[in-house]
Structure formats: C-alpha cells, structure tokens
Amino acid sequence: MATASLFGMPPERGRWVFVALGLVTNLAIGSIYAWSVFRKPLETFFSVGATESLLPFIVFLALFAFTMPAVGGLLDRYGPRLLSVAGGVIVGAGWLLGSQSTSMAMLTLAYGLIGGIGVGVVYNCPITVAGRWFPDRRGLAVGITVLGFGLSPLLTAPIANALIATAGPLATMAYVGIVALAVIVLCGLPLRFPPEGWVPDGWTPGAGAARTVDLDRSGMVRTRQFWGLWLCFFIGTLAGLMAIGIASPVGQEVFLLAPGTAAALVGVFAIFNGVGRPIFGSLVDRVGTRATAMANLGLIALAALLLWAGSGPGAPLVYVAGFAALWLCLGGWLAIAPACTAAFCGTKHYGPNYGLVFTAYGVGAIAGNLLAGSLRDIVGSYAAVFLPVAALALVGLAAAALFLGPPVLAGNG
Length: 413
Description:
Low-confidence stretches: 207-212, 408-413
Helix content: over 70%
Strand content: under 5%
CATH superfamily: MFS general substrate transporter like domains
Number of domains: 1
Oligomer: single chain
Number of helices: 16
Number of strands: 0
CATH architecture: Up-down Bundle
C-alpha cells in the first residue's frame, strides 16, 4: 500500500525521521546505564554495601524487562504515540520520586519500580515503529534506533558525576528526571505505524526476508529458535549489564583509577555500547543469526578471561579493553534480539513476541548484578566475577551453534 508523504518527504526518506526520534528517546531512557556513577556516592550517603547499592539498578532493569510483555500487546490497540507519552511521564516520575528518597529501600521502590515500569512502556515503541517502516533494512534501522540507549552514558555519566560532586546524588536524579520526561514526550508525539501492507517503493521480500505467515506468542515458544535466542540473550545481557553496573567501582577498586577517570571511561564505554547496536544489527542482516550470536558470545568470553587474568593495579589497558568489549557486546544483543525476533516470527505479533524475548534481559540483569554484588561482598573483589561470566559465555556459544540455525519462517539463518 502506498503512502503519499512522510514529514514532507517521500516515505522512503521520511521514515528515517522515526529512527532519529527513536535514537533521541533512547538517549533519555538509557541514562540508567550511568548507574555505576551514582553507586559509590549513594553507598556513602545511605551507608550501605555493594549489593544493596545495586538493588535500585536491578529492580529498574527487571521491571523494565517484565513490563514489556505486558504492554507489547497494547501497541496495536493504542499506538506508539500514546504509550510513549504515558511512559515518559512515568519515567520522569520515577526519577523525581527517587530524588526524594530517605533510604535505599525507598529509592529502590521509587526509582527502580516506577522508573523501570516507565522505561518498559516506552522502549518497545520506537523499536516497533522502526521495524515496521524498515522491512528491507530492519537490523540496521533497529540498531540505529537503540544506539541512543547505549550512547546515553557518554553524555549522562560525566554530567551526572559533575552534578553529584556539587549537588549530591539525589538532586542529580531530579535533574535527570526532568530532562528525560521532556525529551521522551516530545519525541513520542510524532510516532506512528505505516499503513497496513506498506513496503518501500520498488522493494519486494527476497529469499532472506520473513514470509507473510507470522507466529504469535504461543507458536513462537514452540520453536527451538525462541529458546536458543532467549538463552543467548540472557547470557549476553548478564555479562553486559553486570559490566555496566560495576564499571566505575571496578575501575576505582581493582585498577585504582581516580573517580573522575573512572566516570570518564564509563562515557567511553558507552560509545562501544552504542556502536555495537548498528554493527551487530547489520551483521544479522548480512550473515544471519547464528554467526552473529556466536561472534558476540565468543568476544564476551575472551573479554571476561582477559579481565580475570589481567586485573589489578597498573593494568588500565586491560580494564579499558575488557569493559569496552563487554559493553560493545551488550549493545549488540539489543539489536540482535529484536532483529532475530522479527526474522524468526514476522512482524504481525512483534510487540508481544519481543516483549517475551526481552524477559531474558530482566533475568540477566538480576542474575548478573546479584552475582557481582555478592562476590564483591563475599570475596572482597569484583575480579572474582569474570571467570564464571566467561564460562557462561562459552555455554551460550554452544547454544547458538546448536539452536540458532535456519529459522522456521525465514531463510535468514
């Protein structure tokens, strides 16, 4: 079905505006990835340990992940505009209420619970819009859309670190919340889906594109591709979200970097997290699911082994190389998973389907950060966490080889 114009341009050009809006939206909601900058100031402010200071981050990520299946089915009913605006208000409320906390428990409920639900409502909207407007270049379009989530700490980490030094961690949360609310609402207002049956002018589905038959959620869970993707996504996010949660403390405690240097490097790692999304998204388009997932998990294993074997004072290059790779691979999974969901199951039921796949992100967030916090409190060093992460990555590598073969409904294997 043809559509005359989009933002005053032919739809094949105008659709890129949705990608840009999604990227900016993700810059706002991706501020969660700067959490490691808040952790040590909050530990001092509330007099808590490493595990407790991770709880708001864990709850936020878990609610983010488990809200997506609940709201995925509402996208077709209410549209991406309404859900984006509503989610933006909830995100802002979470940050602002968190800034009024008098204990870590209250911060976990306000910021973790409310903020996490808000991001869960918002996140799928620009991804689904990009996926539907780009049936011809889905991996690239989705990868660029979620690029902002990964790049967010490049902006928010150094800004938050400077604000924390002058205004304190809680006041800084209020500032972040006000900006996030405004950006998400403004970027969400123009979002809409293409007309039913729309395809780019001159494009026809090839052998590698998803066929017209689509799997719903009940059909998807009966395929080996779903379970293989879920397991690999879980392991990839366990490693990556663990790395994000402990990046700044590991730099300071294990590699003896100054707090300002560690915060600045979080911003550098954000670049890798961001570019990992279009890089791995394009790889899915070019070489398929299995090869892309195996390359990603193999790199995670190598990075974790490097950090385990080479951690210690005087080894900043090991720290930079290892964490850059882990953040890169996490960014990759935020493009691999949605692109593969659409390739395996089509786009008709994409919202509910990807919402279910995304629960792997929530489980990985809980497991990875509890593992890191517990080992730090028990052993006394974050270095102990990298060996089990490497072992899990090797398990994921085997799962990708066995289960992510040619999908049921697509030739993109």
